[in-house]
Automatic annotation (TrEMBL):
Residues 494-504 have a biased composition (Gly residues). This is DNA polymerase III subunit gamma/tau. It catalyses: DNA(n) + a 2'-deoxyribonucleoside 5'-triphosphate = DNA(n+1) + diphosphate. Residues 414-425, 434-446, 468-493 have a biased composition (Low complexity).
Amino acid sequence: MAFQALYRRYRPQRFREVKGQEHVVAALRNAVRDDAVAHAYLFSGPRGTGKTSTARILAKALNCEDLDEGEPCGVCEPCRAVEAGTSLAVTELDAASNNGVEAVRDLIQRASLGTAGRTKVYIVDEVHMLSNAASNALLKTLEEPPGHVVFVLATTDPHKVLPTIRSRTQHFDFRLLGASLLTEHLREVAADAGLEVAAAAIDSAVRKGDGSARDALSALDQIVASGGAGEEDASVDEVVEGLCERDTARALGGVALACASGADPRSVAAAIAAHLRDGLLSLMAPDLVSLPDVARERVADQARRLGPAALVRALEAVGDAVLALPNAPDPRVTLEVALVKVTRPDADTAPAAILERLEHLERRAREMTTAAVEATSPLVAAPAEGAQPAGPPAPAPGLRPPVGVEGASPTIEPGSVPAPGDPSAGGPGPVPSGPSRSAGVPGGPAEPAQQPVRPPSGAPDAGGLDQAGTASAPRSGGAAGASQGRPSAPAGAPAGGAPTGGKAAGAREVLGAARGRRDEAVATPPPAPQKPALGSLGATRGRRPASPPTPPSRPEPAPAGAPPSAVDGGEAGAAAPDLVQLSGAWASEVLPQLSSVSRGRFSTGRFVDVVEGSAVLALPNAIMRDKCEEKRPELERVLALHFGRPVPVRLTVDPSVGAEGGGAATRPGDAEHEDHIDLDDLVDAPGDARTGIDRLTEAFPGAEVLGDA
């Protein structure tokens, strides 16, 4: 017996053998069983889905002598004649080659003739290829055929069929087969035919079939004849792997491998596009991927590595290449250029490529930042056995520790610092040399720490180092406030002895930290308005705003014999700023540091005098003075931060301030350059004796007055 293709050998012969078209099979079987067969049917769907085979099964069922619930027996003479193609009751017409009106007229003439069977079935394949004249000639017979005639029209494009034909038929839509169903069908065929086919070959045939049973069986025939899966599948997979790895050489190598095996560049491009489409579907709608399980997992992995954006861009590039291939002088070059653009975004000037490069740079920057943070994270060393961790340095008097810091010292409000030697406070005591304990525990003793000692006569001044290597307290008024925010020396440091390099370096670090905190306090916006005591304004420079109150504790003792200036920073003895300093700093440095509301109120005033160390600020009226009185503590705080010492402010009323323009503070001596005009010396201009008529005639020369108005 001559060789017969698998799709012909395993064509379905009964309704139950049709794969994937249960909705069509059930309707036709019930119609045959109930004797309710229509006079015309229209089968539409992709190629290889069973349209013509189902029409032949219907013809067998209509002429079968032993029906079984609508199923043909396949044994009787009419069934065997239809299967062999020798039945006179079945007439097939290929409309693709017989699309003229003459072929249709001949069919109509023979339709009225009877046959040996019960029903005469006309199968018109590719009916959409009929010409308009042939379609119109078929209309009348199709609408009112003889009682023993049934028409079955098959087409792959139902939209090209005339609407008048579609309206005269029952339309059944055939669907593509799923990957799992097609794989199972191929395995059954291979087992029944005795073919030894690997699972990879079955998957390749399913992929090439793309839902069509006939195409899948033809691909299986070709794979069996060639001894295995073709190299085109491997080359397409190699190309996609090159796209995932951004390896241009690998992608171009896959194209070269496919072309060397005899594949056409256009078919290779179409296969790459189909592969990328399956990958995109695996990300967006996995249920729509019609691939075997192994191929589905591999495609999904490649899609995850590429990402949705790169997949879309690759599909667009390969799709454009497929459209350009028919008109390209060398189709392979067009495909290779498209793959280079996908793997090398810097070779593409399209906006999508530029966007992908930017996203890649941002992703790399985030990865590098994360790696740098992990590499530079501090390593916390475990303390030595038996060693106690040193507590935080005790804060200077009047400082408020940061909120939420473990072990921070309790808050000491302004004015709560006792005088040295006060018995009620416990008086100064010796400084312990052991490790300090945290003073932040309620009810615990305050943390003792070594206080900065005022240097003896002849020692370095202004924050220098004494002979013992400890920080000395500055005596100048400008640096007095900084000493309030300076942390004490580490607990346990010796109070005297020969200077050593380690002690001097530690003192320099303490001084540098204190000065840095002073600069930070100046640059930090002022806290909420509050009227501080005059003796502790310098301490507010190191305070953080809006910290919750904490229970007070015993203040830290000062060194024995230290003068009062060593505790309060020597602010009482500092000289108050004069009127020139106040006026010079008012508009350019003081006002900008105030809040917007305070700046608007104080901008109408200016400093006019300094009385007993208090700056006198003149305002234009009593109402403005009362409003500014509410913001006076904020102004005093900003002045104290600027001049390094408390500057009390008195508010007064001077109407001339408003007449002179308010906040433009003037320096003494500027009034010499102003022009003083005595209003009594001014002479009134003579009155204008002209009438209105005189003015009109002057305004309009040549005008004449005709009469009194």
